[in-house]
Design a protein that fits this description.
Elements (H helix, E strand, L loop, with lengths): L44 H8 L9 E5 L16 E2 L2 E2 L7 H10 L3 E4 L5 H5 L3 E4 L2 E5 L8 E4 L9 E4 L1
Parallel strand pairs: 1-4, 4-6
Antiparallel strand pairs: 2-3, 5-6, 7-8
Helix pairs in contact: 1-2
């Protein structure tokens, strides 16, 4: 997960560089309940994903990635008009590395969460990126959000709120 404004940093990594959006806390700051097995200061999500995609075919794979791809309908946060040190905060908070991975490798399905309000803001819980179907099961209401995905036809997926 790219840097967030939260202090718990167990699973956060820099996205594609050591740049951190205004208002977010660096992965090297905050606290951890799990000791990292790598140098957090110089490790990126993109490096992790590049290790996966060398000569691989992901056309039949389903990935659980938590952070949604950047600049999609699945990564929209309620940050309209928010400024940090006179700098507007980007309303798209997804991962650039995830976006690049999906566009380059075209897995069959990617599953995301993390940005609970995005479906309410955009009206979309599914987005097709090339041949990949990306889904956001996160929900900011009191109901439980479930997505039923037929693996042979992910475009026919249905979202249920229970």
């Amino acid at each position: 997960m790219p840097p967030t404004p939260f202090l718990l940093k167990d699973w956060e990594r820099y996205d594609i560089s050591r740049f951190v959006d205004p208002g977010c806390v660096h992965p090297t700051e905050g606290y951890r309940t799990v000791e990292p097995d790598e140098d957090i200061e110089y490790t990126t999500i993109q490096q992790h994903l590049e290790r996966l995609w060398l000569d691989a075919n992901f056309s039949r794979c389903v990935f659980l990635l938590d952070s949604p791809p950047y600049k999609t309908q699945l990564d929209r946060a309620t940050l309209d008009g928010v400024m940090v040190d006179h700098v507007p905060v980007d309303v798209h908070v997804g991962s650039i590395a995830m976006q690049r991975f999906i566009k380059a490798m075209q897995p069959h399905i990617t599953l995301h969460g993390h940005i609970h309000e995005s479906t309410r803001l955009t009206g979309s819980w599914m987005q097709q990126i090339g041949k990949t179907f990306a889904f956001n099961a996160a929900h900011d209401g009191p109901e439980l959000s479930l997505i039923q995905i037929p693996l042979d036809d992910p475009g026919a997926a249905a979202r249920l709120l229970l």
